[in-house]
């Protein structure tokens, strides 16, 4: 929002050249990390891969456009697969503190106070270890099972308020939770049934583990 042209150059304009270079270099598989945010606001209890995309932000709109671009390059010699991950949580060596579970944990640990914007919005999350394991599964499984396909991948679906309560239980009862109104209405509850049924992948960890 601060710099739409810069955002477009990173998240959309750079994508097709990368796909072309990968294919020309002899790459056999291209796994694209899209985002479950492409679904926008959904009332359905379990959002699956066949549902209409309603992206709300430039970022999620570009993610949806890149999915279409990638699919057009799929062939027998260049297997393309789209993953729509939930929000990643947990510790990593290149730590992100701008995602919901990590934000709330950081606030709780350092400030003894969690500020929740809204609270009723549903947020699907996936532990970083499960995210990595899903990529490994896609790299080693039969290409015929994943060629040209799209998979949701998520662990727990919880409201932001419930996540804050979980964080408080882990960090300590002295942590206070405050609620503020927000204009961020993104809310969705993704289903990861397809990736389990078609390639046998299932997450092992949850928000409390992270």
Give descriptors for this structure:
210 residues; three-stranded parallel β-sheet; three-stranded mixed β-sheet; 8 helices; 8 strands
Give the class from helix and strand content and strand pairing: alpha/beta
Which descriptor suits the 3D outline?
globular
Radius of gyration: 18 Å
Order of helices and strands: HHEHEEHEEHHEEHEH
For the largest beta-sheet, the strand count, sense and barrel status come to: 3 strands, parallel
Number of helices: 8
The count of strands amounts to: 8
Give a quick summary of the entry:
With 210 residues, this protein is of the alpha/beta class.
Describe this structure in words.
The structure is a single chain. The chain is α/β, with parallel strands linked by helices and 210 residues long. Helix content is 39%, strand content 19%. The protein has eight helices and eight strands, in the order ααβαββαββααββαβα. A three-stranded parallel β-sheet has the order 1-2-6, sandwiched between helices. Strand 1 (29-33), helix 3 and strand 2 (79-85) form a beta-alpha-beta unit. Helix 4 crosses helix 7. The protein is globular. The protein starts with a helix and ends in an 11-residue tail after the last helix.
Secondary-structure topology with pairs:
Elements: H1 4-13, H2 15-24, E1 29-33, H3 58-71, E2 79-85, E3 87-89, H4 100-111, E4 113-117, E5 122-127, H5 128-140, H6 143-146, E6 149-153, E7 156-159, H7 160-171, E8 176-180, H8 193-199
Parallel strand pairs: 1-2, 2-6, 3-5, 4-8
Antiparallel strand pairs: 5-7
């Amino acid at each position: 929002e601060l710099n739409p042209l810069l955002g477009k150059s990173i998240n959309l304009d750079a994508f097709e050249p990368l796909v072309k270079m990968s294919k020309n270099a002899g790459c056999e598989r291209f796994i694209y990390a899209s985002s479950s945010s492409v679904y926008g606001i959904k009332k359905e209890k379990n959002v699956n891969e066949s549902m209409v995309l309603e992206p709300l932000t430039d970022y999620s709109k570009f993610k949806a456009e890149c999915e279409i671009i990638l699919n057009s390059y799929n062939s027998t010699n260049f297997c393309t697969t789209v993953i729509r991950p939930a929000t990643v949580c947990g510790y990593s060596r290149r730590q992100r503190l701008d995602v919901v579970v990590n934000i709330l944990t950081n606030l709780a640990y350092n400030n003894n106070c969690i500020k929740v914007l809204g609270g009723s919005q549903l947020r699907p999350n996936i532990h970083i270890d499960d995210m990595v394991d899903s990529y490994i599964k896609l790299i080693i499984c039969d290409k015929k099972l994943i060629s040209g396909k799209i998979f949701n991948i998520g662990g727990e679906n919880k409201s932001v308020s419930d996540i804050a309560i979980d964080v408080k239980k882990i960090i300590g009862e002295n942590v206070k939770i405050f609620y503020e109104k927000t204009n961020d209405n993104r809310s969705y509850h993704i289903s990861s049934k397809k990736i389990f049924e078609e390639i046998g992948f299932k997450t092992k960890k949850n928000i409390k583990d992270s």
